[in-house]
Design a protein that fits this description.
The structure is a homotetramer. The first copy, chain A, is of the alpha+beta class. Chain A is built from 6 helices and 9 strands; from the N terminus they run H-E-E-E-E-E-H-E-H-E-H-H-E-E-H. The relative contact order of chain A is 0.18.
C-alpha cells in the first residue's frame, strides 16, 4: 500500500466520522459498549493495520461523538472481525457495530430483505466451549457461523446474540467507511421513523 | 441546595476527572461499557440531580479520557444506582464503575478485607424474572441484594456478576468523586502491581 | 487558601466557561489573539496562582470554544493584568479580554455610563520607551495609566489601544468568572442588537 | 475537482495536523494570533474553497493543538493569502503562519539562504492609505510587495512586519500541508537548537 493510499484512508475515515457525528438518529443505535468504525488496509492481518476510532464513538451533548481521532490499532474486536471477513471477501474492508435487541433484530431482517442484503444471526450460545477457551478462535468461529447461517454467503448485516457477560450487537460491513456510515445512518433514520 | 454547593460539586468533579485522566493504571480497569463517575445532590431522586461524565470515561491515546464534560443527567444506570444507595445511607453520594473478571473479583475481596471495607457480590442470575420485567425495579433489587449479601451493611465495594447481555462490573462508592477516584486509582495501581 | 476554596474556583470557572461557550453573541467579540478568562487566588503574585483557560477561548463550529481546560498558570498576559489590578483592589479577582475597534470603543463608553461603570482608555502610544524596554514594567504602567485616566478609580472596563505589533483589546474585570462572563455576554448581546 | 481529490485533501490535512501536534518545538513559534494551516483546492477563489483548522492551532497542555477539525471556510486571512499566491503560481496550495520577531527574522534569512529558498520581507508601514481603506485590497498589495521585494520571484518564506494593531508574522508556503508542516517543524527545531 502506498503512502497516498494510506492518506486516502484517513481522508475517508475523517469524512465518514463527520457524517456519523451529524446523524442524530444514530444516537439510539449506540450500544452500551459504544460503537466503533473500522477500515482495514487490503490484506490486513493484524489490528495494527486497521484504522479505527480511538476511544470509540460515544454520545456527548446529545449527539454521536468520536471520542478520539482515527488511529491504526485503536480497535481490537471490530478490527479482528473485519480481518476475518476479508479472508473470505477482500472487497469488504470497513465495518461498524451498533446496538441490538429483539425488536430491532426483527426489523433489520425485513430491512435487509427489502435492500436485497444477506442478513445472518450468530447465536453465541452455540459457541463450543473449546472455542471459547482457545485464545483468538472465537472470531473465526463467529464469522464462519454467520456465513453458514446465511447459506454460504457473506452477510452484509449480521446480528450477534448476547451471551453471559456479552451485549448483543449488530454489525454492518461494506467497502469503505463512507459507504458503511451512509448505510447505517439510513438504517437509523428508517428504524426511528418506523411505527 | 444552594448554587454555591452546586458549583462546589462541579469543582470536585473537575478535580476528580483530572486525577482519573492522569491515572494510567486505571486504563486496565475500564470495562467494555466504559466507566462513569457520578456525584449526586443530597436527597437526589432522579438522574437529573446526579452529575456524571457526558459520554463516559473511555481510552484515548492510551490514557483514561472523559469523552465530554460533567453534566447533570448524563448518566442513567450509575445515577440510579447511587440514588438507591443514598436511600440507605445519605452519606454516600459518589460512585464509579469499573471492569471485572473472576481473578480481579477474588483479588478485590482480599483488598477490601485489608482495608476493612465491606465487600459484596450481586449474583444477577438470582434476579427473579418478575423483577427483570418490571421497569425500574432491577436497581432496588440489586442494591438490596448487595446489602443482604453483606449481612445488612452497605458495601463500599461490590461486584455485579455478568448475565446474558450484561458485562460484569465492579462498583465503588464514596462520599464525593475525589475520594472515589483516589481510592479507585489506588486499587488500579495495587492490582497492576500484584503478582 | 484552603483546598475547598481552590475547588470552588475550579467550579466557578467551569460554570463560567459553560456559559461563555453558549453565548453565541460573544463570537463577534473574540479578538485575533483570542480571549482568555482568568481567576486569581486572593493575594496572587504570580501567573501560577491564576486559573485561566489552557489554549484560550477560540471559535469552533461557529461558537465560542475553550481550547483546553482551566489550569493554573495557563495565562501570562491576562494573569499579570489581574495581579496588578488586585494590588489596588483585592476584590477584583477575575477578568476577560475581548476585541475592540473604534466603533465598539465608543459604544462601550456609552454602555459603561449607563451601567455606572468606570470606563478608561489606555493609550499605548504614550508608553515611555524606558518602560517598554524594561522586562515586566509594562503591565504596572498600563494599570496605573488606566486608573489615572479614570481619575484615580479602578475602571470596571477598559480599552487598550493598539500599538505597533499589538492588537487593541478591551478588558472587563469583576469579582469572579461567573460575574465577568454574565456581564460580557450582556455586552455582546446589547452591542450586536445595537443599530 | 473530484470528490476523491477532496477526500485526499482531508487525509493530508489530518496527517499534517498529527505531525504538527507532535512537534513540540513549534510551540515557541505559535504567535499571539495563533497559527493556521491552510490547503486550497486548485484554482480556489474564495475561503470556502480553502481547508483550514477551525479555531486555529493553539497550545494546550504544553503542546501545539488544533482547536477544532479541518473545515473548508475556517480561515479568512491565511485563506485569502494562499488564494492570492496561487494566482501567481498555482503549484503553491498550502501555507502556515507563525510568530516572528527581529531575532527570528534575521535567523530565517540565513536559514532560507542555506536552503536556497526565496525569502522576502513585507514592510506593512509602506502600505498606502488608499489600499488599507479599500476592502479586500490589502492582500493583493502584500503578495505583490513580497514578490517585488524578492526581485520578481514568489518567496517560499516571507516575513510581514508588525503595524499598528497587527502582530508581525512569518508565512511559509508549499505544495501541500504535509510538506509545509515538515518544513516548519524543521525550522522550529533548527531555530530552538541555534545558539
Amino acid at each position: 500500500m502506498t503512502f497516498e493510499e494510506e492518506i486516502l484512508m484517513y481522508g475517508k475515515m475523517f469524512v465518514a466520522l463527520d457524517q456519523i457525528e451529524n446523524c442524530k438518529d444514530f444516537l439510539y443505535l449506540i450500544p452500551e459498549v459504544r460503537s466503533n468504525l473500522v477500515y482495514a488496509k487490503p490484506k490486513a492481518t493484524s489490528p495494527e493495520e486497521v484504522l479505527a476510532v480511538d476511544g470509540r464513538i460515544t454520545v456527548v451533548v446529545g449527539m454521536p461523538h468520536a471520542a478520539g481521532r482515527p488511529r491504526f490499532g485503536a480497535s481490537s474486536h471490530m478490527a479482528r472481525l473485519i480481518i476475518e471477513v476479508m479472508k473470505r471477501d477482500p472487497a469488504y474492508r470497513a465495518g461498524v457495530n451498533f446496538a441490538s435487541d429483539s425488536r430491532l433484530a426483527k426489523w433489520l431482517e425485513g430491512y435487509a430483505a427489502e435492500k436485497g442484503w444477506t442478513y445472518s444471526v450468530i447465536d453465541r450460545r452455540k459457541e463450543p466451549d473449546e472455542i471459547k477457551e482457545m485464545e483468538g478462535s472465537s472470531m473465526p468461529w463467529k464469522v464462519s457461523e454467520a456465513i453458514e447461517a446465511a447459506g454460504g454467503r457473506i452477510p452484509k448485516l449480521f446480528y450477534e446474540t448476547g451471551a453471559v457477560g456479552k451485549e448483543p450487537v449488530t454489525v454492518l460491513i461494506g467497502i469503505d467507511p463512507m459507504e458503511v456510515v451512509r448505510e447505517v445512518c439510513e438504517i437509523a433514520r428508517s428504524y426511528n421513523a418506523s411505527p
